Amino acid sequence: MSVEELKLSYFFENTESFAVPEVFEGVEYPWEALQKATQIVDERVEEKKLQVNEGTLAEGSYLHGNYLIGKGTQIHSQVTIEGPVIIGENVTIQSGALIRPYTVIGNNCVIGHGCEVKHAIVGNGAKVQSFTFAGDSVLGQGARVGSGTIIANRRFDQGIIGVKVGDMYTKFGTDFFGCVLGDFSRIGANSATLPGTCIGPYTWVFPLTRVHGFVPKETRVSTSKELKLHPE
Questions:
Q1: pLDDT tens readout for residues 39-57
Q2: Residues near 181 by Cβ (< 8 Å), separated by ≥ 6?
Q3: Fewer C-beta within 10 Å: the chain N or C terminus?
Q4: What letters, b where the CB count within 10 A reaches 16 and e where it falls short, cover 42-55?
Q5: How far apart are CA 14 and CA 21, in angstroms?
Q6: Is residue 27 one of the residues assigned to a domain?
Q7: What is the mean pLDDT of residues 61-89?
Q8: What is the rounded CA–CA span in Å between residue 34 and residue 134?
Q9: What start-end ranges are recorded for coiled-coil regions in this protein (predicted)?
């Protein structure tokens, strides 16, 4: 496999500045980083039965299992965190959010009200807005996922996930994978990405858009449907 557009370096810069930079070390493709993250969370948190929260936990929120949560992080009421997880510094997790096992969240992130984040890497400064599902995904630094967006992480036929770039189809070797969202890219509200979607950096997906496959960097993506008004 030698598709340059699918390599980690196409989507993400300055990976050494991530809160847990080791998840990207020795990794050639983004989906491999999720496997690496699972290994690191196991080594640093699960195997040591670590339960360290240096942030603030509001009344009515729950920490289950093992976790490492950095300084300045604010966990609002009615949040559920299912370990093992690693959460960086100065993160805001708003009320009703669910963080599921083997998620790694960088520094200065926002996880919105009612979000579900499952087995994902969330880059420094990224924001996942209210009522969003982000499963088995890698989100770059400064990325934005708008309210109500679904990052689907499993094919309808439960088959192996992959993506086509040009004439070459690349399989990821897993039946669970959501989206690669490059640095500073944005997905507008109430959009959906199909499993295996790869969106390059500095790309904007406008609201109410269904996205699949490979989307190059510095691209604007929107639907062509027009609003029709019918008089009574």
A1: 999 999 999 999 999 999 9
A2: 11, 137, 138, 139, 140, 143, 145, 187, 199
A3: C
A4: eebbbeeeeeebeb
A5: 9
A6: yes
A7: 98
A8: 13
A9: none
Under the banding of pLDDT at 50, 70 and 90, the label for residue 230 is: confident
Residues 6+ apart with CB under 8 A from 8: 15, 24, 27, 28, 29, 30, 32, 33
Half-sphere exposure of 134 (CA within 13 A, CB side): 36
- Asked whether residue 86 is domain-assigned, the answer is yes
- The one-letter amino acid at 221: V
Burial class (CB in 10 A: 0-12, 13-18, 19+), 190: middle
- The residue segments making up the domain with residue 21 are 3-221
Over residues 128-174, the pLDDT tens digits come to 999 999 999 999 999 999 999 999 999 999 999 999 998 899 999 99
Closest CA to 126 of 163, 180, 84, 172: 180
Our count of domains for the chain comes to 1
pTM of structure: 0.94
Instruction: Find, among 116, 189, 177, 106, the residue nearest to 142 by Cα.
Output: 106
In a domain, 61, yes or no: yes
Burial profile 213-227: b = 16 or more Cβ within 10 angstroms, e = fewer: ebbebeeebeeeeee
Non-local CB neighbours of 208 within 8 Å, separated by 6+ positions: 188, 189, 190, 191, 223
3 state DSSP class of 230: coil
Is position 216 within any domain? yes
